[in-house]
Each structure stands twice: as C-alpha cells, then as structure tokens.
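Incident log, structure service

09:12 report received: a user says their structure output differs between two submissions of the same chain.
09:20 pulled the input from the user's history:
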Amino acid sequence: MERINRILQNKYFQEYLQNIYKWEINRKFCRHDFEHSLAVARIAYLISLERGNNFPRDILYGAALLHDIGRWQEYEGGIDHAQVSAELAEGILEEAGYGEKEKKVITRAIREHRGKGINNMSLLGEAIFEADKFSRLCWQCQVRDECYKYKEMPARGGLCY
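09:34 re-ran on a clean worker, output below:
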C-alpha cells in the first residue's frame, strides 16, 4: 500500500482535509473528514469483494480517500464537489505513482460517487457511492430530524441514501 501512504502524506491531500475541517468545524451534521473517507474505503473494499470485482486495494482506497477532497470548494463557491474532487485528485494520484489508466478509473469513480443522474456507472463508482451512504449511521444521529437527507430517505434501515 505504498501508493496509499504517498496519498496520506501528500501535502495537498492534508491541506484539503484541513480546508474541509475549517468549513465544517461547527457543522452539526455528518462531516467529511478522514474517518469518513477511511470508512468509505473499508466498506467499498468489502462491497467489491462480495461482488467479486477484486479491485486492487490501492485503486479502491485511492478513490475512497480522495472522493470528498474538494468538498471545501463546494462550501466556498457552490462547485460540485464530486467534479472538483476528481480534478484535485489527479495531481495527488500522479505524485503517488498511479499511471494514466489508473487515474482515469479512479477519477471517474470520484465523479460518480454522488450517483445523481449517472447512467452506466462504473463498478468502482458504484462501490464508492454505496459505501459513502453506508458509512453514515443516520439511525443514531442526534440531529437526524433536522437533516434533509434523513427526511428524504426511504426506509433503508437508517442508512442515508
């Protein structure tokens, strides 16, 4: 997992997480911190194993760890964080040693992770999308009754979708 370690040590990755932290410091709803991204990586890994997709772990973890890194730009300027996260991820992936094909697979999954209006979603995109939702424990959230995601979600056992 050498390339994952390079992502974690990347100065831009760390800077983007700090930017998100600053925007979300007083947020009462779910945060988009490192723990969230790590949970998404672990759950996506399990989903892919169960489905027999067998993505290399550093591809799957790379997509999951980077899927929300542009969230601060959505707060700052209303830019879709999935799109900007994919753009920001390219440089980090390059520095971490990922090849062009790998970067395309990962950035596509990042763009797809919100799942809104996407036809022919990639298998990696599906895994990241589902893991992103399963990582949220809405059923035990103290402010779920104030959350639009919880109010809009169909009965899914307390999982935000």
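09:41 both user submissions now match this output. Likely a transient worker issue. Closing.
09:42 reviewer note: The mean pLDDT is 85. The radius of gyration is 15 Å.
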